[in-house]
DNA sequence: ATCTATTCATTGCATATGCAATGAATACTC
DNA sequence: GAGTATTCATTGCATATGCAATGAATAGAT
């Protein structure tokens, strides 16, 4: 069953490459676009929470978010009750590019599963959601 | 269907993290263990071929292989007919650790699919093999 | 309430990464 | 077979990455 690990690893790296190439022009290479997408969809996560949700090292995520704040896509707010937390939100600039980012993600996905029937696609999605890591 | 991309991305990064932590003691962090596994199983690939097979940037792969040659896990040979090519092989030292590397990979996979029935596991493997990238 | 253990964000530092460019060898065209 | 286009390995360079450590804030225990 180790082929599963190998396959998803190769696919992930490939998609990462094309995505980074696609979004470099927006200053969103190095997986930065992922943070904008996730933050748009789930605003108010704190930094570590966001990092964990995409399984990226917290310090790397921290620095990427800093850059995205600098470039105006994201903003940070202190939590009202827990002074340790810094919650992440998209700015209008970040919200404005979300459709483009998500459309590309969608397009990559569609291409990826283009050899599967609709039923198989649903089955794959279900099986993947059951993986434990 | 974009959940597919997100799921496999998160899983891949997670597995990468635990694998690197596991093999750091052997000097095989930063995905280096992948090259030993692949080279053991398919000896004689040239550098770019090996890089492409795991979807890692060729220059990164090149440098990782250099390190593995330095540390004695891999060796390079010039191709007899095409002077551009450098073919990769495992050394006895590389061959000696293959079982450990592969066992860990196996163990990660088993854990990953532990919530699936045998039939579902086979189905997942089949579906993944049909993905196009 | 004090003491201890966790959980955050953040920084330092050594190293890895990857785009762009180079030169050498081979393939392809006419 | 000269000329052009590809395909290699390799290097330079700027940047990203991630482990380890820090200090501040909170949670949990006694």
From TrEMBL, chains A, B:
Keywords: DNA-binding, Transcription, Transcription regulation. Signal peptide: none annotated. Gene3D superfamilies: Winged helix-like DNA-binding domain superfamily/Winged helix DNA-binding domain. It holds the Pfam family MarR_2. Residues 1-133 form the HTH marR-type domain. GO terms for molecular function: DNA binding; DNA-binding transcription factor activity. The keyword Manganese does not apply. This is MarR family transcriptional regulator. It comes from Secundilactobacillus folii. The lineage of its organism: Bacteria, Bacillati, Bacillota, Bacilli, Lactobacillales.
């Amino acid at each position: 069953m180790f082929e599963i690990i190998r396959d998803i690893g190769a696919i992930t790296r490939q998609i990462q490459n094309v995505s980074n190439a696609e979004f470099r022009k927006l200053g969103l290479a190095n997986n930065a676009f992922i943070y904008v997408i996730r933050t748009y969809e789930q605003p108010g996560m704190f930094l570590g929470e966001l990092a964990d949700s995409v399984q990226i090292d917290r310090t790397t995520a921290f620095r990427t978010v800093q850059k995205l704040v600098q470039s105006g896509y994201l903003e940070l707010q202190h939590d009202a009750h827990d002074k340790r937390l810094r919650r992440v939100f998209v700015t209008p600039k970040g919200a404005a590019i979300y459709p483009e980012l998500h459309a590309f993600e969608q397009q990559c996905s569609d291409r990826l599963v283009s050899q599967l029937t609709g039923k198989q696609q649903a089955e794959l999605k279900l099986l993947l959601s059951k993986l434990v890591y």
